[in-house]
Input
Amino acid sequence: MSATVTPEVLWAQRSSLADPEKNFIYLTINVPDVPSSNIKLDLTPTGLSFSGHSDSLKKTYAVDLEFYAEIDPDASRVNHTPRDVEMKLIKKELKEEYWPRLLKESKRMHFLKTDFDKWVDEDEQHEALEDEFSQFGGGGGMGGDFGGIDFSKLGGGAGLPTGLGEEEEEEDSDDDDMPALEGEEDEAASKPAADAAPQADEGKEVA
Output
């Protein structure tokens, strides 16, 4: 019987007050040797459920995420590679500020890490946008970029486990390499400047 594990999830983001294509989340689920035919993905405005099985590694990967704010699934795009599933999730609300974290809850998640290859500070993001994530191309829905996965058969995330990793979220606190965006206590202490940019030194990002 194959083991079920929570895959490593990497993320970064960009924001824009005017252009939806520049207002998005980079999300990568590291699931090596999982063919498209063994993937189930349910992407909604508020989160996603994912599962995938690797025959060669004899592992089943599964994870559920509830996002900090809503995204637009129809405008988002997904790319499947032999190593991972990469997503460009368009944020629903156009906003100049970054999300303070990826997930709705502020608890630490051992599997969630910052994608340092794609991360840039909020005040430097506009210089970094032009040549990024070219594999997603311009426009088109998720289905066309997902390496042959038939989204019409993925519906509703049936059979996808929920709450994976929750039992470990409290005990894992070693994500010291997260960039400085997380920390609600620092947000609260930042005065009522709700629209101010997230503090660059708030603490380590873990969602």
In short: The helical segments are 125-128, 166-169, 184-188. Residues 137-177, 180-207 have pLDDT under 50 and may be disordered. The chain has one domain: 3-177.
